[in-house]
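Sample entry (333 residues):
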Amino acid sequence: MKYYLIIPLIFLILYLGKFLILPLLFSFLIFILLKSVSNKITSIHTFGYSLNYYVSFFIVCLGLFLFFYFIGALVDNDISKVIVDANIYQENIQEIISAINTYELNSSLFSTDNFLKDIDLKRILSNTLNFFTNAAGNISLVIIYLIFFLIEEKFFKIKLEKISPNKSTKQILEKINKQIYEYFEIKILTSFFTGILTFLILLALSNDLAILFGIFSFLLNFIPFIGSLISIVLPVIFSIVQSFDFSITILTIVSLIFVQLLIGNFIEPKLMGKSLNLSPIIMIISLGIFGKIWGIAGMFLSVPILVVLLIIFSNLSQTKKIAIFLSEKGNIK
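Predicted structure, serialized as tokens:
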């Protein structure tokens, strides 16, 4: 087969097989999270005693399940209450339209009046709630994959030893494994703090969807460039619709921009060692490609996939040139 046919074939397989590949990738990410946190707990010694790895793993799995169940219940309660009050928000939209008409802010190129009239807040919120409900219903395949990861884990090292008894190969694989864990530990930690700070700020500003936007901020932190922008824009738009108070809106904008700058420009680069070491143009291209193939899930996975590829390619002599191409300044470890 000609080499120029391989790349289109790969993209075709990724697109057609997304119903299997996406759950597989998400289960792999969850597996990394569970294993990483479990190892951290196991390494903690209290009075000369530490928990067994499998006990730690069970506790983390149970904690994660209860956490998502609790968050899901809160989101459902949050959105349901807002849907009940949707008529009030719709009236605020009408006030915004009236204010725009009063100050003649519309232009011939873009009619804000018509744009706002088309907004049906109740339908948007109902669709959002359905999205979370469907996501929870489709998680069964992710759980099945996760179970197989757990079963296969104990045999993986045995297989590697039989495939390649070479010590240098084992060291490379261990290094790849370590770097992948370190990346996801830091990224999940910074995303968690972004979500918590966003939630607390919006709660202090009496935003009715503080929990939902906090969760969005956590998830969107995995999407470069666009994610940070969306996690600011959505709460700001809703704050206008909710209260029609521009002092609250300005406070929301300033506070959320501060959070994004603090986490994205200072804390995360400091923890990761300056930056992800990924070329910005490569990140944007991959964001567009994976977004086209897999939608929002692809955008969410694009950078984690690139990071894993960079780590793997930089540790293998045959693929170091590809790693240099993917890197930000051509420097690889």
